[in-house]
Each structure stands twice: as structure tokens, then as C-alpha cells.
Amino acid sequence: MSKAKPVYPSERKVRKILITIPVDQISMIDNCAKAIGMSRSSFLQVYFDTYAEAVMNFAEGWLAGISYYVKKGEEAAIVEEAKATAETLTGKKMSVTRRRKTDE
């Protein structure tokens, strides 16, 4: 005969945080936790421990996807810094202001 042995997450330093997720996902998490006899918190801890690598891969993929925009922002910052330096050295404004022609 086999005996049922409860599974609990390992004892580690914990910190409580507040997250906002849709109600349907909360009920799904609660149903899953109830089905295996755990609390929501314990279930989520075990879930994230089990899928930590997948969570990290998701975050890395997300960062790779936005790297183009990060690089573009860094390049714009470099151009602005060079422009400010040139204005300081020459004493002249480097940007060109275009004015609209008005029919007067």
C-alpha cells in the first residue's frame, strides 16, 4: 500500500507582494490549487519553481524583441549629446527651425 504524502514548497525567505491579475485567472489558479490540496500561495510557489526556466526564457525573449527600440533610444541619446557638445563648442545652435509660410 502507498501512503499519501503532502507536498510542500521548500522553506525559503519569502516576501509578500501584491499583483493584479484578471479574475478568471485567479479562479483558475484557485481551482488548480484546490485540486491538488494546496493554498494559492503554495501552489504558485511550486508552479514558479517548476517553470522558472520557462519564465526566464520568456523574459529573455521579450527583451530580445524590444532590443531594437532600446538601441534606437540609445542612439538618439548619443546624437542629442553630440549636438549639445557641438553647440557648446561653437556657440551656435545646431538645429534648424522651419517656419510656416503665411499668406499675409
CA-atom Rg in angstroms: 28 Å
The percent of residues in helical segments reads: 55-70%
Structural class: mainly alpha
What's the β-strand tally?
Answer: 0
Question: What string, H for helix and E for strand, traces the elements in order?
Answer: HHH
The number of helices is 3
Low-pLDDT ranges: none
Mean pLDDT: 82
Brief sketch in words of this structure:
With 104 residues, the chain is mainly alpha-helical. The chain has helices at residues 23-35, 40-50, 52-90.
Q: Please, could you describe this protein's structure?
A:
The protein is mainly alpha-helical and 104 residues long. Helices cover 61% and strands 0% of the residues. It has three helices and no strands. Helix 1 packs across helix 2.
Features:
104 residues
Write the layout of secondary structure elements.
Layout (H helix, E strand, L loop, with lengths): L22 H13 L4 H11 L1 H39 L14
Helix pairs in contact: 1-2
